[in-house]
Amino acid sequence: MVDPRTERQRDLIGDIHAQQRRKLFRRVALIVALFIALLLVAIGLKLLADQREQAECLADARTGFAQGTSEDLDAVAKGLEVCLAEHTGDPELLGALALTRAQLAAEFGDQVEQAEAAVAALPEDAKHITHDGELARVMLALDRGELDEARERLTAVEAMPDTKSIAPNHEVWVSGMLAIADPEADLDAAIDRVSTTVQTDPSISIQRLLVVLHMHAGDSSTALEELARAREQSRTHNGLAADEALYNALLRQKLPGVADVADQLLGGEFVLSERDRAHALLARGVVHVQNGEIDKGMELVDLAWASLPGWDKLSRALALEMAMEAGDGKRARKWIDEAGLRTPESEIYDAWVELVEGEVMTALADLAKLPQEHPRVALLQGLALVEQGRFAEADAWLARADKLLPGRIDVEVARARVEAQTGDPELARRKLESLAEEEPFAPRAWTGLGEANLAVAAKASKAKPDEAALKDARRAFKLAIQRERLPAEAHLQVALLADRKRADKPEVVAEVLEQLAKAVETNDHLPRYAERQALYMAEVGDRQAYAALAKIVERPGIDWQAPLALAKLVVDRVEFGQASELDPKFDAWVTQAESLAAPARELELLRARALLLSDVEADTKTAELELLALLALNEADIDARVYYIRTLGYDRDKAVIEIRRGIQVVPEAQTGRFYCEWSTIMSRGAKRRPAAMYAQTCWERLRADPSSSTVQLLEAGEQAVRMLQRDKRPKPAMSLGEELTDHLPKSSIAWRLRADAELFASKAAEAKASIEKSLELDNQDPLAHILSGDLWMRFGRKDRAKESYETAREQAKGTALEKELGKELKKKLESL
Questions:
Q1: Which uninterrupted H or E stretch holds 760?
Q2: N or C: lower Cβ tally within 10 Å for the chain?
């Protein structure tokens, strides 16, 4: 049995121990609570410190980001990396770093791989997605050219709060860049939005964007004003200096200053981002190209091209223009493909390449299919029409181009060229003198100056042009040949200027033909040059004229002169005994000339001449009526009267009356052909002395008349030599033969006639030299080979004579001379 007192003692001791334990527990709990409280305070303080550090990091980043240079952004990125080392995984810091790296990549072309890595490190869970991080994704999509993705993501970002963003309003920058990259975007709306933001946002990147937007919108004056303000705001921003050089180069203005700024930026003393360096290289390349240093300039443009992003249309367009100005169609086409241009831009540049390569007709046809309201379509159509010589049509297009693309020197030059031809040539000359001196390698500046001088010379007096102006014109065209790409027009004009001296210096024909050949070689795409060459060849009696004209009439873009000249040539050949009948295509060529608006008088005269070649009396009667109709319109029409006289046949009295009437109604200097007809009538009547006298008068007057054609001169020369020989006057005949070759040094017929006169005068050595020259010019003339055989017989070389006679017989086959020469050649060969 337990003692109750003992139980009470035990209970008392237990209570004491319990009380002691409770006190201990309370003390421990109090200590724990105090510790927890202290811990919570420490954690709170730590959190506050972390938040303060994060805020300070973000604030520093915000300041550096607003300053906006590539160096500032690089410093911001490095600062954020330091912060992230202390605050690993912080979504705001990660987003800020991604945005900074993305800005370096998208604006400057720097640290692209680091930007991709920073975006890849962003948290994917919705709770930790940040405004800056998502905006960085948009910017990299934009830089990659993934515009649809960028637009879609940007819409989501614009709905997010940007309270902790290091670049508040930066979605405005991204949307503006999207507007530049998207050819269908509303640039005006983008400019309005950016202009509003610039007023309150100190970010230099947004200020710079406003400049770029104005340039893309074609408002270069406002762009340069905004650029000046941006440079004032950030004097250390080397990218803005590169922009200034680029835009002035784009406008082809202040080029010495452009070169100076670009050289300083590229000299190694300044830190330049990849894209700013590309802009400086491109600007410097432009100056080299404009100064005529094509290879040096295009080397820099090549380097720049590799660093130009797809959205940088202005720079890429400028690079393409330099390829055009360098005449490098192959390089331009490669860049057009690489640029991935959308329609109609790609088609516009394709047409530009065609124009650069001289395919003016193709370029005009392609441009006609493109949007006519596009500024570059207006520009290219105006330039192409000027190259084609369609100055009146070009004027409206160039005026539009000047308004939409102000300040372009190629437009200034083209408008001055139009003014020279359609307005005040003296005003145009002064303008082009200034342009050529200021920009000596500007497209067509020297050609335009030469054209203006020609217009001034012509305006002075058609009868006696201003010789000083002609001299200045020749000098300008010579400089154009030295300095211009594809100076075909300059070669043509040098040829035409040289040809002015042909009457006094017939030897210039060789120089003229050489310059015309160079014009064709320089630009055979434009038929203007090959057409003029073929017409001149026909004019001077070149044996290749027929082939050249037959080829040119097949080309589009020619005028009526080529088919008409070809039709005349085949009539001339029959009249002169070089062909037995008209070419089967004669009627087609006449019809072609008529469809191209050839003068009715020219067509009627040519048809009458063709009818006179027929032996059918009805054809002769029809020709007579047509010629009388022409004389009724103009009794001083020499061609119509000469051929009308021929319709009279052997009605000697009536023919002489018409001859005398012709001599009375035309100036004496132009009466030569009537004397040729009179000589023919006298010869038919066996009156040798008057026939020879009239033939000499015909030759002398035609030789002195600059309007005399080669065929007319050859006919007159041949008749005069023949009549003098019939009159037993070999020395005058030989002298006339020398005059003939002096006047027509490129004519094989002239040399053959001279050789015949020299042989008749027993000057065998001189005749041999002349016939060799004739055969050098035309080895297919059977009459020349017969004469060569006669000369070899004179020298006792029967073997060589036989060879010449056989060649003559071979060459005569199929021609009008085959039957005529058959018996003569057979007799000569049998005598050997």
A1: helix 748-760
A2: N
The helix/strand/coil state of 213 is helix
DSSP string, 779-796: TT-HHHHHHHHHHHHHTT
pTM: 0.71
What the block records as the tokens of 577 is: 């005994």
Q: What's the token pair of residue 431?
A: 């303008």
Give Cβ neighbours of residue 242 (< 8 Å, ≥ 6 apart). Answer: 261, 262, 265, 272, 276, 277, 279, 280, 283
Query: Rounded distance, CA 770 to CA 320, Å?
Result: 56
Q: Calculate the alpha carbon distances from 578 to 542, 563, 569 in Å.
A: 14, 20, 11
Quote the distance between the C-alpha of residue 242 and its chain's center.
28
Whole-number Å distance between alpha carbons of 67 and 73: 8
How much is the average pLDDT of 390-396? 94
Q: What residues have CB less than 8 Å from 682, skipping those under 6 apart?
A: 688, 690, 691, 694
Residue 484, SS3 per DSSP: coil
**Average pLDDT for the chain:** 89
The C-alpha atoms of residue 385 and residue 377 are separated, in whole angstroms, by 12
Q: Contact 506/744 with Cβ under 8 angstroms?
A: yes
CA distance linking residue 76 with residue 95, whole number of Å: 13
Which of 430, 474, 426 has its CA nearest to residue 450? 474
Query: Nearest Cα to 266, choosing from 254, 252, 251, 282?
Result: 282
Cβ distance 68 to 233 under 8 Å? no
Among residues 768, 830, 778, the alpha carbon closest in space to that of 802 is found at: 830
Question: Are the beta carbons of 324 and 301 closer than 8 angstroms?
Answer: no
CA distance 383 to 394: 7
| pLDDT of res. 597 | 94
Residue 485 is given by DSSP the state: S
Q: For 811, phi and psi rounded to 5 degrees?
A: -70, -25
Is 623:647 a contact under the CB 8 Å cutoff?
yes
CA distance 276 to 205: 13
**pLDDT, average across residues 501-510:** 85
Which own/partner pairs from 650-659 qualify as long-range (CB within 8 Å, at least 24 positions apart)? 650/684, 652/681, 652/684, 652/685, 655/681, 656/681
**Residue 345 neighbours by CB distance under 10 Å:** 18
577: left (phi > 0), else alpha (psi -120 to 50), else beta?
left
777-815 residue pLDDT tens: 889 889 999 999 999 998 888 899 899 988 988 888 877
Q: Measured between alpha carbons, how far is 766 from 754 in angstroms, rounded to an integer? A: 9
Mark residue 583 as left, alpha or beta (left: phi above 0; alpha: psi -120 to 50; beta: remaining).
beta
Q: Quick one: which of 109, 472, 400, 103 has its CA closest to 272?
A: 109
Which of 789, 811, 814, 819 shows the shortest CA–CA distance to 802?
Answer: 789
Structure confidence by residue, pLDDT tens digits, 627-678: 999 999 999 999 999 999 999 877 889 999 999 999 999 999 999 999 999 9
Measured CA to CA, the distance from residue 482 to residue 440 in angstroms comes to 11
pLDDT in tens, 571-599: 988 888 777 788 999 999 999 999 999 99
Q: Is the pLDDT of residue 407 over 90?
A: no
Residue appearing with tokens 């596009």: 374
Q: 3-state class of 220 per DSSP?
A: helix
Distance CA 171, CA 451 (A): 55
| Preceding amide of 344 cis, omega within 30 | yes
Residue 786, both tokens: 């017969």
Helices vs. strands in the chain: H and E counts, helices first: 43, 0
pLDDT of res. 48? 53
pLDDT digits 0-9 by tens, 260-317: 999 999 998 888 999 999 999 999 999 998 887 888 999 999 999 999 988 888 899 8
Tell me how far apart the alpha carbons of residues 513 and 745 are, in angstroms, rounded to a whole number.
12
